[in-house]
Amino acid sequence: MSDFYKQILDNNKLWVENALEKDPNYFKDLAKGQTPPLLWIGCSDSRVPANEIIGAKPGEVFVHRNIANMVVHSDMNMLSVLDYAVNVLKVKHVIVCGHYGCGGIKAAMGNDSIGIIDNWIRHIKDVYRLHQDYLDSIADENDRFNTFVELNVKEQVFDLAKTSIVQAAWNSGQELTLHGWAYGLNSGFVTDLNVNFSSDEDLDKVYQLKF
Q1: Contact predicate 71/96, CB 8 Å
Q2: Is there a contact between 68 and 105 (Cβ–Cβ < 8 Å)?
Q3: Which residues, in sequence order, are CB contacts of 83 under 8 Å at separation 6+?
Q4: Beta strand 93-99 with 177-183: parallel, antiparallel or unpaired?
Q5: How many whole angstroms separate alpha carbon 57 and alpha carbon 34?
Q6: pLDDT confidence band for 1 (50 / 70 / 90)
């Protein structure tokens, strides 16, 4: 058994002991069920832990993560998480959180083949294509990178609003608001990108579904 593997098992035991010391019923209460008010769609990057960033406890955030926090309309994994969060857990907020320095975004700005992930990166490249004139006009590469991170988050929030799951919830009068954030790895702070939806009114009519 490697030292690292043994360490993480020991860490788990210590975590349990500390939790029970603070509250003897901690795990009994946690096992009764979850009623999180929030679904977090974030990047798989190990430096962006959803709960810790917002100071949330276990049971307070339902989480889906993938490379570059994408909302792909044919991704059954993401759609299943979204459907459960909205229709069963009745979350009131969905946050799409990207982060500056994202490797998936960086890869989409170049042409190097990485492997099977190239097919996922194509979705991110589509976002670049939508904003190519603007992004190409940004001379500083790091500024262009950061702007692309933000634009990608905004597009994913739009794509979230286009889903039948979200629109059906709005149609039934369910309270549900979508948000877009960008997280700073070097600061720890999130930036609210001011892309917030609580209805389909800001969507192009071609995406507005009739129920």
Answers
A1: yes
A2: yes
A3: 165
A4: parallel
A5: 11
A6: confident
**CB distance 41 to 161 below 8 Å:** no
Residue whose structure tokens are 């029970």: 20
Q: Is 104 exposed, middle or buried (0-12, 13-18, 19+ CB in 10 A)?
A: buried
How many residues does the structure list for the chain? 211
- Quote the DSSP letter at residue 210: -
Catalytically annotated residues: 43, 45, 47, 99, 102
57 contact partners, CB below 8 Å, separation of at least 6: 51
d(CA 117, CA 95): 24
- What's the distance, Cα to Cα, between the start and end of the chain in Å? 56
At 26-80, the pLDDT tens digits run 999 999 999 999 999 999 999 999 999 999 999 999 999 999 999 999 999 999 9
Q: Which residues pair with 191 in a beta bridge?
A: 182
Single-letter amino acid code for the residue at 12: N
For residue 179, the model assigns a pLDDT of 98
Beta bridge mates, 190: 183
